[in-house]
Amino acid sequence: MQVTPVNPREPKPARIEAAAKVLRAGGVVALPTETFYGLAVDSSRGNAVARLNRLKVKDDDSPVLLLAADMAQVERVSSAPPPSFAVLARAFWPGPLTLVLAAAPGLSSQVTAGRGTVAVRVPGLALPRMLAEALGNPVTGVSANLHSRRAPRTAGEVAESFPEGIDLLLDGGPTPGGGPSTLVDLTGTKPRVLRRGLVLEAALRNFVPDLQSAPAQSAL
Predict the structure, then answer these.
(1) For the segment 79-120, what is each residue's pLDDT rounded down to a tens digit?
(2) pLDDT at 40
(3) What would the DSSP string read from start to end of the chain?
(4) What is the rounded distance in angstroms from the CA atom of residue 118 to the CA atom of residue 27?
(5) CA atoms within 13 A on the CB side of 66
(6) In 3D, which of 208, 176, 189 has the Cα closest to residue 86?
(7) Helix axes 13-24, 126-135, angle to 10 degrees
(8) What is the mean pLDDT of residues 13-21?
(9) Hey, CA dihedral for 14, 111, 116, 150, is it positive or negative?
(10) Domains plus CATH for the chain?
(11) Which of 18, 31, 182, 199 is most buried when burial is the number of CB atoms within 10 A of its CB?
(12) Which residues of 145-177 are buried (b: 16+ CB within 10 A; e: fewer)?
């Protein structure tokens, strides 16, 4: 595993291009986000996403969250978003709000797990946004831990969990932690919180009053 220091708020172009090169070759890059460290692969490469699932010991029938550079990339992986999508995206992106949308035709089943939906956000931290931009595709944003284990806040915790399998670890120092991104499903008749996180339901409800609350067991 190659470990490279990086400023996650103002990463050098050379660092971004080196990471994008790894992704283009089907590799795995660990990097900080505005919540925890995540594992990035090129979401357009089904074999890379399958490798990621094996690395995390994660079931293939579980969908994979994506991080996009901007709205244009979100539109390429999603289809027919409801009016609430534009409202929430304008209010909370870039930031820790993940929205579940209908998947675009042709999006890898390794990403959707055959559900016909995609979970995506434009992250608040510059590093993952710039990496997706350099790659030209959204990158995966699953947490850099073995499935069901605690999400890591430091590069050292990532390396401890994955002594093998990661090609490049971008060490941007400790992440804020505090909770995951809030996950909201927009594919039903009403917006519904699937996972509570850093964006509070009360704040969301200011923009989508018909928001359905998360199940009690999903509270942090």
Answers:
(1) 999 999 999 999 999 999 999 999 999 899 999 999 999 999
(2) 98
(3) -EEEE--SSS--HHHHHHHHHHHHTT--EEEE-SSSEEEE-BTT-HHHHHHHHHHHT--TTS---EE-SSHHHHHHHEES--HHHHHHHHHH-SSSEEEEEEEPTT--HHHHTTSSEEEEE--SSHHHHHHHHHHTS-EE-EESSSTTSPPPSSHHHHHHH-SSS-SEEEE------SS--EEEE-SSSS-EEEE--SS-HHHHHTT-TTPBPPPGGG--
(4) 22
(5) 34
(6) 208
(7) 50
(8) 98
(9) negative
(10) 2-209 (3.90.870.10)
(11) 31
(12) beeeeebbbbbebbbebbeeebbbbbbbeebee
Unique residue bearing structure tokens 């030209």? 136
Would the pTM count as exceeding 0.70? yes
Q: Closest by alpha carbon to 33, among 185, 220, 179?
A: 179
The Cβ-side half-sphere exposure at 23, using a 13 Å CA radius, reads 30
Structure confidence by residue, pLDDT tens digits, 28-84: 999 999 999 999 999 999 999 999 999 999 877 889 999 999 999 999 999 999 999
Cα-Cα-Cα-Cα dihedral of 12, 15, 20, 22, to 10°?
180
* pLDDT score at 218: 43
